[in-house]
Amino acid sequence: MRHRLILGALALLAIAALVAWRWSAGWHPDEKRFAVQGLTASASNGAVDWGMVHARGADFAFITASTGTTRDPAFEANWNGAHAAGLRHGALHVFSLCEPTADQVIAYLTTVPRAADALPAALALDFTADCDARPTRAQVLTAIRGFLGPAEYHDGRPMMLRISPAFEDEYRVSEAIVRPLWATRRFFEPDYLARPWRMWQANPARTIDGVANPVAWSVAAQ
């Protein structure tokens, strides 16, 4: 009897975990509060049916152009696909603390075309498992500014800074560099930046029709 009760309890826990996982995988902020929503896409997301993504509620897309000094192999296909589907789209560079800023600038500039109808580009700032470098705050701020200068000259407008909570806690970037801010926090509205955020990455792994693998899902402030 006790054995059956234990098995029953484990089964219920497994079902509850599955339900929670499915809920979290499909969750996004309420569209009544956040009318403008969209995704970030890169080669790691696999094939994207941009028409389907647009039909499922995406208003915009940020397309990863480069990570460190590596150009994203899916950038051109995703950029053109988002454009053809009528989604507003902008480029994203994932900054690396382990690679020279000048080489990262080259990777970005040789990937992203000048496009008057594109959204302002974004610079992603976070720690990654493949880079354990931790420069001083002054060094990091100098490196970020060194990237922003030529990248913004190329794009013709200020970039948005997507800053993770851990990176902000370590380097306090939002206090020092005045740019539109893109916060990241799963499920709960973020409050860790020095100034109000313009965008919020609310679910880093949302499952959506039209994309092979889960995508990071974001909303714009009202």
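(ticket continues) Second input and output from the same batch:
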Amino acid sequence: MHSLDYKSFYDKVGHINGWDFSTINCVYDGVQPDLYDEVKKICKKSDLWLDIGTGGGEAVLSIAESSLLLVGIDQSTGMIKTANNNLVKSELPNVRFLKMEADHLDFPAHFFNVVSCRHSEFFAQEIARVLIKGGTFLTQQVSENDKLNIKEAFGRGQAWGEQPGKLKRQYLSELSKAGFSDIQSFEFHVDEYYQSPEDLIFVLKHTPIIPDFGQTEADFQILQQFINENQTEKGIRTNSERFMIIAKL
């Protein structure tokens, strides 16, 4: 997908579902990373926290009370609409959701104590500008070989054909150039077992793993063959590959 395709995709999904995958039944064989567990450990009650690519706000609202103020931003109008609807239901007073591009953060310099970004694009120079000295940036990203057997079956997919580790190396270099000095990175490789075809179809329809999934009948024929070949006692097998970076300014 090109950048405009991604924006259109996330806007559509944002209106329909936000970024809520809580209904998916999936068993993990290994340690599944959770960026917001790490954010919760770092955030103080007096901190100002910015979350980039916040989606429908589902994850951050659950730990918003860890900070004095949480500001969640997303480029998608649909996602922000869903996030604000979720905020109204939560009745939390210390949260704001704003439509904003990650490459132009409309905040004063040295404003936030903590900045986070999960599975979304970020720009290291902008983050360094809005973080206080000694502030912390945390990100969790999808690695190139995530859902590799699915992408092999379809012959296309997110980061298909990219060299493994390319995105992590790029972000580590950009953070270093932006002035971050204490930079740690971690990789996570987990086997996933989806409990039903419906669970897997929901993920494929609501993420960009396979661009334009379901637009043709051939996609469902490929998926059926994939399920037949990867069905196990634990479920339909694929893989999850993520990396996490924690950097101090």
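Agent notes: The CA atoms of residues 28 and 192 lie 5 Å apart. The chain has nine helices and eight strands. Closing as not reproducible unless the customer responds.
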